[in-house]
Amino acid sequence: MYDKEIVDAISMNHMYEYCVANRNFEVLKYSENILKYCDEDVIQVVHPDLLDVVPELVGMEEELLAMLDGDSKEVFVPLVFKLPDHYVNIHIYKSAQIDTFIVLFESITALTKEQLLSQQVHNENLLLLAEIEKKNAQLEVFNLEMKRLVDEEVAKNLEKQQMMELQTRHAQMGEMIGMITHQWKQPLSVIQTLVSLLKMKYERGTLTQTHFTEKMDNLLTQAVHMDQTVSDFQRFFTPSKKQDHFDIKETISSVLHLVGMEYELQNVKITVIEDMEVSVFGFANEYTQVILAILQNAKDALLSSQQTDKKITIRIQEQDDRSLVTISDNAGGIPADIIESIFTQYMTTKEKGSGLGLHIAKSVIEINMKGKLLVKNNKEGAEFSILL
């Protein structure tokens, strides 16, 4: 009875518990472990009411009776929660015996818990992703703000550096004007002497045509020399608009033409040694300023030293298809504790120095002209090397 073979098979399957009820919803038989899914006080009375045993079926009475009358083969109630922590699917089938049906409790606890856990993890991941997205948005806002602040600070520093570079250039111009004054003193003195001599001979009536022509040629030579000095000065402080090939010896000579007299007055001897003619590609005027900065650094070192025979040697040569210009002095060298930072911005050992001369020189050679500006101490003093 009650489809015995089927019921026995169900009883052997731990995933299922069951009960059998009639048309009056009286429970006629149930499996031993059905207490997992219903109240013990309810199930153990004689012929308990199915709707008390399985309250989830309340309201489905007509559907269950219709199934008994042959309108359907099964009534299915999915995902029912049973205290304390069970989940079941409820299947109701019509029994082979007249006016009875079987209620099966399919245990889906493990699967449901796994799905719930998976859903929980999924929801937590969604929350985590939402939080990450929120943090990323906040980080993007922060990065944008930091970029704005950095850009402002960089702009301020650039403006400050440009101002310092301008002040350094003005200081160089002041020094150059002083040097030009010395350059002009000799030709002016010669011009004054020649003019006085011509005037005296003219007043005495002893001025001959030959003498007049000779002295005028001499005056013209002095005027050309002074004009060349002004032209060199003007060209020196006019930035190069584009890179071009230029002769290193000629470029260095133009610097010495401007500053040579000043160095002579300070008893500093400059010697230029050219191993071979060398032409390079770059900004000629900026290159001259680099030469001047290094020469000024060497001169200051010599003037502050105890050296009596003050010398600066400039050597022009070629090394591995690159130009190499070394500028060395005999001032004793740069102290070991500062030689590594000699090119650092605002680094200076001079009382009124800006610390920008050598820094700008290194920037011009290594950034603008893709070369190298190095320094080391030799046996007599400091040695700067310019490679292009």
Number of strands: 12
Overall structural class, as computed from helix and strand content, comes to alpha+beta
Please give the largest β-sheet.
5 strands, antiparallel
Q: What is the CATH C-level name of the largest domain?
A: Alpha Beta
CATH-scheme architecture of the largest domain:
2-Layer Sandwich
Low-confidence stretches: 351-355
Radius of gyration: 52 Å
Q: What percent strand?
A: 15-25%
Q: Helical percent range?
A: 40-55%
Specify the overall morphology: rod-shaped
Q: What order do the SSEs take from the amino end to the carboxyl end, as H and E?
A: HEEHHHEEEHHEHEEHEEHEE
Give the averaged pLDDT, no decimals: 81
CATH homologous superfamily title of the largest domain = Histidine kinase-like ATPase, C-terminal domain
Widest beta sheet: strand line-up: 2-1-5-4-3
As for the number of domains, it is: 3
What is the end-to-end distance? 108 Å
Number of helices: 9
Query: What is the CATH topology classification name of the largest domain?
Result: Heat Shock Protein 90
In short:
The protein is an alpha+beta fold. It is built from 9 helices and 12 strands. The protein has helices at residues 4-11, 40-43, 50-53, 61-68, 109-204, 209-236, 248-265, 284-303, 357-368, and strands spanning 16-22, 27-30, 74-82, 86-94, 100-107, 244-247, 268-274, 279-282, 310-319, 322-329, 372-377, 382-387.
